[in-house]
Amino acid sequence: MDFVPQTARGLLSLSRQWRGRVAPSWADAIAFLLLAGGAVLVIRGAEGMIAPLSRLHIAPVTLDPANLPGYALRTTLRMFAALGASLVFTFVVATLAAKSRRAGMVIVPALDILQSVPILGFLTFTVTFFMGLFPASQLGVELAAIFAIFTSQAWNMAFSFYQSLRSVPNDLEEVADSFALSPWRRFIRLDLPFATPALVWNAMMSMSGGWFFVVASEAISVGDTRIMLPGIGSYLALAIDRQDFVSVGWAVAAMAVVILLYDQFVFRPVVVWADRFRFEQTASAHRPRSWAYDLFRRTRLLPVIFAPLTALGQALMTLDRRVAQRARREPTERSDVGRWLWLALVAGAVGWAVWLIAGYVAHNLSAGDVLRAFGLGVITMVRVLVLIALASLIWVPIGVWIGLRPRWAERLQPVAQFLAAFPANVLFPFAVIAIVHWHLNPDIWLSPLMVLGTQWYILFNVIAGASAIPNDLREAAGMFGVRRWQWWRSLAIPGIFPYYVTGALTASGGSWNASIVAELVMWGNQKLTATGLGAYIAQATADGDFPRVTLGIAVMSIFVIGFNRLLWRPLYAYADRRLRLG
Amino acid sequence: MATLARLPAAAPLVTVAGVRHHYGKSTGDLLVLDNVDLTLNEGEVVGLLGRSGSGKSTLLRSIAGLIAPSEGEIRFEPQLDGSAPSVSMVFQTFALFPWLTVLQNVELGLEAQRVPAEERRTRALAAIDLIGLDGFENAYPKELSGGMRQRVGLARAIVVNPSLLLMDEPFSALDVLTAETLRTDLLDLWSEGRMPIKSILIVTHNIEEAVLMCDRILVFASNPGRIAAEIKVDLPQPRDRLDPAFRALVEDIYARMTARTVAQPARDGLFPGTGISMVLPVVSTNALAGLIEEVDATPFDGRAAMADLSDQLQLEIDDLFPMAETLQLMRFADLSGGDLLLTPAARRYAQADTDARKAIFAQALVQHVPLAQHIRRILDERPSHTAPARRFRDELEDHMSPDYADETLRAVTHWCRYAELFAYDEDADEFSLDNPI
Question: How many whole angstroms separate alpha carbon A365 and alpha carbon A9?
Answer without folding.
Answer: 64
